[in-house]
Amino acid sequence: MYVVCREHLERAIDEFVEIYEMPPDIYKLDQVSFTDWDVPSKCNFCDKPPGYLVV
Questions:
Q1: How many other C-beta atoms are found inside a 10 Å radius of the C-beta of residue 34?
Q2: Where along the chain do its domains lie?
């Protein structure tokens, strides 16, 4: 699972495919909500606010 900014979305997709050998599901964080999960404050690859969830 990756929580990333727009700039790192492609990198997260590439890493996901390399590890799991299948395409990920991609969600815009402003369009989904989870009851038992708080969105991290920064991208997995930089300090920018995340915009996407790659799972």
A1: 9
A2: 1-29+46-55
